[in-house]
Amino acid sequence: MNLDKWKSQIARGTLEYCILLMLRQKTCYGYEILQELSKYPMLASTESTVYPLLRRLLKENYLEAFWKDSAEGLPPRKYYSLTPLGEEYVMRMSEEWENLLNAIVCLKGEKNER
Q1: What would you report as the CA-atom Rg of the chain, rounded to the nearest whole angstrom?
Q2: CA 16 – CA 22 distance, rounded (Å)
Q3: Which residue ranges form the domains of the chain, and what is each CATH number?
Q4: Which of 77, 88, 30 is nearest to 54 (CA)?
């Protein structure tokens, strides 16, 4: 496996977590999520990846959505936010993320300071 494929697998595996972390901080609309992800090359995603993920998270009741009017002449935007279940889910994901990071630090032979 080459490095680009490995990086792609990491990004796919963590995209859901990253989106939930974003929505934990503030309510966002879909394109805003895409723009934020594009700031981090390893996380940059396409609409065909992010929107199905948002739909699945809505269906699983981790997110809720509402429409809000945007600037004059532009169509309304669909905003996403975490539900209480989503808050609990991202908190559990954060715990597991810390466990993963600690394991990696140990495997690298570095001092565990987490």
Answers
A1: 16
A2: 10
A3: 4-113 (1.10.10.10)
A4: 30
- pTM as predicted: 0.88
Q: How is residue 58 written in tokens?
A: 């809505």
Which of 58, 11, 9, 54 is CA-nearest to residue 32?
54
Enumerate residues 6+ apart whose C-beta is below 8 A from 47.
Answer: 30, 34
DSSP 86-112: HHHHHHHHHHHHHHHHHHHHHHTT---
Can you list the residues of the chain whose pLDDT is less than 50?
none
| pLDDT of 100 | 94
pLDDT value of residue 80: 98
Q: What is the pLDDT of residue 64?
A: 98
Lateral strand order in the sheet of 63-68: 28-29, 77-82, 63-68
Instruction: Identify the pLDDT of residue 8.
Output: 85
**Distance, CA of 90 to CA of 63 (rounded, Å):** 11
| Residue 90 contacts residue 81 (beta carbons within 8 Å) | no
